């Protein structure tokens, strides 16, 4: 088994196609990050890791789009260990990683650093969609005229969720066509969107997020309503819909479960420090 660097995001998608098709939900984020790079999202540096067996078949994959953390997909522990070693061999300090929870020891062994768990996340996949009851308001796709408000809300969402957003304006601009407001009396009260849809031979998968309601407007089920609107927009177009949610937030978990999302995996966001 060897770990190599794909030349770019397009080659990474091709090289990992069968691997991702075998587990399209839990590997979705790898595909959507690569797709974002193909669509023009700028990163400080990009590393596209492909672990291959002796027959050249992909058995593991990871993306590292700095300044973001190393993101490792589900794989065998020995594969994760080799990916961690390959990341360390780039000469760039690996300050953090996001990995399936069962791979924490393997990735830290490979990188040669100590893990400080930051946040646990649950992976949820839609099984039997259940529309919420009536909620005042209506959904509306955001437009360029909304970019200032979207930028502010994305920044607030990132701060609250502890997510690194390098360029709020670029993130707002890339949301056009993928983000909706829930409006009451013509005023936005909540928003939800989805990442680039990822296609593999196994499934066409959409990942919901971000979902955000300003604190003063919470408690009215606006988040449920706008999330449902995005789900209903996607359902005719894709084979699967999934999302990540903070494992320590019972409120958001309950909202998604009422809509029909079910737990399919766990990942952990790690800070990595020298041993």
Question: Would you write up a description of this structure?
Answer:
By secondary structure, this protein is of the alpha+beta class. It folds into two domains: 2-120 and 270-274, Aminopeptidase (3-Layer(aba) Sandwich); 129-259, Aminopeptidase (3-Layer(aba) Sandwich), CATH 3.40.630.30. It has nine helices and 13 strands. Strands 1, 2, 3, 4, 5, 6, 7, 8, 9, 10, 11, 12 and 13 form a 13-stranded mixed beta sheet that branches. A hairpin with a 5-residue loop joins strand 2 and strand 3 (58-66). The longest helix has 15 residues, at 147-161. The protein starts with a strand and ends with a strand.
What is the topological layout?
Elements lengths: L1 E4 L3 H7 L1 H6 L5 H11 L6 E8 L5 E9 L3 E3 L4 H12 L7 E5 L3 H8 L1 E14 L11 E4 L5 H15 L6 H7 L4 E6 L2 E8 L3 E2 L4 E9 L9 H13 L5 E7 L3 H10 L1 E14 L1
Parallel strand pairs: 4-5, 11-12
Antiparallel strand pairs: 1-2, 2-3, 3-4, 5-13, 6-12, 6-13, 7-8, 8-9, 9-11, 10-11
Helix pairs in contact: 1-3, 4-5, 6-7
Average of pLDDT: 94
Beta-strand content estimate: 25-35%
Query: What is the fold named in CATH at topology level of the largest domain?
Result: Aminopeptidase
List the domain count as a whole number.
2
User: Which structural class should the secondary elements be placed in?
Assistant: alpha+beta
User: How many extended strands?
Assistant: 13
Largest sheet: 13 strands, mixed
The CATH homologous superfamily of the largest domain = Gcn5-related N-acetyltransferase (GNAT)
Percentage of residues assigned to helices: 25-40%
| Radius of gyration over C-alpha positions, nearest whole angstrom | 19 Å
- The string of secondary-structure elements, in order, is EHHHEEEHEHEEHHEEEEHEHE
State the end-to-end CA separation: 27 Å
CATH class annotation of the largest domain: Alpha Beta
Shape: globular
Q: Which architecture of the largest domain does the CATH hierarchy give at level 2?
A: 3-Layer(aba) Sandwich
Outline the low-pLDDT stretches: none
Treating each run of at least 4 consecutive H or I residues as one helix, how many helices? Answer: 9
